[in-house]
Structure formats: structure tokens, C-alpha cells
Amino acid sequence: MIFRGHVDRSLDPKGRLMLPPEYREYFHSQHPEGCLVLTLHRGRIIGITPQQWDAWEAKLLEPRTVSDALQSAIDIYLSSYEMVKLDKHGRIQIPPRLRKSGKLNKDVVVLGSGRHFAVMDVRAYDRMLEQQHADVSQEMSDQGLVPSF
User: Fold this and answer.
1) Strand runs (DSSP E) across 24-68, as ranges?
2) What is the CATH number of the domain that holds 86?
3) Residue 91 and residue 77 in contact, taking contact as beta carbons nearer than 8 Å
4) Cα 100 to the center of its chain, rounded Å
5) Into how many domains does the chain fold?
6) Cα 11 from chain centroid?
7) Which pLDDT does position 145 carry in this prediction?
8) What are the pLDDT digits (tens) for 59-86?
9) pTM greater than the 0.85 cutoff
10) E-assigned strands of 23-131?
């Protein structure tokens, strides 16, 4: 599945989030109990399948010499890991520590990011859209990412 688009949502007082229907269907198709993994990635909470996590974790744990900065990033991925289940209403509960780390308030945006989805506070998402972004046209071209439109 390619996660795309965005939807505005509100977290309930217990930190539960209603996922879009197509996301719910996908996670149920990937795991019989509708489980998914939440973790922090680039300051955002992301959702992936347990299989995606297993592959990522194996890469993170490969023996190598790493800088302190890279070890800190690995520590963040591993320590922010949360396996959650969709409830019968199609909601996931974002644990308090993850909500705090992801700087989530009540109003959030669930956004598709290709192979995963992300959850951001709505104000952070609006700021991201308003920012002047670096011109990445040359990098896109170098990577073969030239739009056909």
C-alpha cells in the first residue's frame, strides 16, 4: 500500500486516534489482530507494519561502528517502539510518552508518507506547509524523480 493524502483528526482524552478506513483495512490485511508499530521518525510519530519494523530493526542492529549522533538516533527508534492494536472502532491508542515526544495536542493530521503514515499536531503540519522549502529540483532529477506532468 502507498499511504497518501491527509485527514484531520482529534485525539480523544485517552489518546485514541481514528485511522482512515483504507489504513485500517491495510493493517488488518497485514496482521490478523490489526497490529501496527508506532515509533518516532524525524520528530514525527509514524505507523508501519510489524513486518516493516522487523526489517528496519534488523538493519538498525547490524554490527557497525557508529557516531554518538547515529547511536542516539538508533536509541530513539528502538526506545519509542510501540506495538498497538486497532480496536473494534478502528482506533489506535497513542501512548502518553509518544504523544509527548511527538508534541501532539488534541488536533492532529494523519498524513500519508509513502510506505508509512505519520501523525503530526495540526499546527506543526500547517507550519510545515507554510515554510519556504529548499529547491530540491536538482536532487530530484539526480534521483530520477522527474514528474511526467
Assistant:
1) 35-41, 44-48
2) 3.40.1550.20
3) no
4) 15
5) 1
6) 16
7) 82
8) 999 988 989 999 999 999 999 999 999 9
9) yes
10) 35-41, 44-48, 82-85, 91-93, 107-112, 117-121
User: Is the separation of the CB atoms in 98 and 83 below 8 Å?
Assistant: no
Q: What is the pLDDT of residue 128?
A: 87
- Domain range for 76 is 6-142
Q: 77 lies in a domain? A: yes
Residue 1 domain flag: no
In a domain, 149, yes or no: no
Cell of 103: 508534541
Instruction: Determine contact, residues 120/44, Cβ cutoff 8 Å.
Output: yes
Distance from the Cα of residue 137 to its chain's centroid: 25
Break the chain down into helix, strand, coil percent, rounded to 5: 35, 25, 35
d(CA 13, CA 126): 23
Q: What is the pLDDT of residue 132?
A: 67
Q: Is 75 inside a domain boundary?
A: yes
* Percent of the chain with pLDDT strictly greater than 90: 79
User: Between the CA of residue 140 and those of 97, 128, 137, what are the distances in Å?
Assistant: 36, 20, 5
